[in-house]
Amino acid sequence: MLMAMLQVVASGLAQVDRLAFHSVDPAGTGALHQALALLPDLAGDRPTPVPELIRRIVARRFEWGMTDGN
């Protein structure tokens, strides 16, 4: 979920209009959905400075996960 979350955050910072997220399996798709559901809670109601958003993500102590070989 952490990688999906970071990709969503980065695409937002880059003002990307559309993010194409390719997951290897249903677990990857689930991770994206979890990240999308959690990000509003992490960001809060008002615009959040990037360092604060990163601090909140780090504070959750997400595990990095396994490599897919890329």
Give the SSE map.
Elements (H helix, E strand, L loop, with lengths): L1 H12 L12 H18 L6 H10 L11
Helix pairs in contact: 1-2
Summarize the structure in words.
α1 (2-13) packs across α2 (26-43). The protein is mainly α and 70 residues long. The chain is built from 3 helices and no strands. Helices cover 57% and strands 0% of the residues. The chain has a domain at 26-62.
What labels would you give this structure?
single chain, globular
Helix percent reads 55-70%
What form results from the Cα inertia axes? Answer: globular
Spatial separation of the terminal alpha carbons: 17 Å
Radius of gyration: 12 Å
What is the mean predicted local confidence, pLDDT? 87
Number of helices: 3
The total of beta strands comes to: 0
Give the topology string: H per helix, E per strand: HHH
Overall SS class: mainly alpha
What percent strand? under 5%
Uncertain spans: none
Biggest beta sheet attributes? none
Question: Briefly, what is this?
Answer:
This protein has 70 residues and is mostly helical.
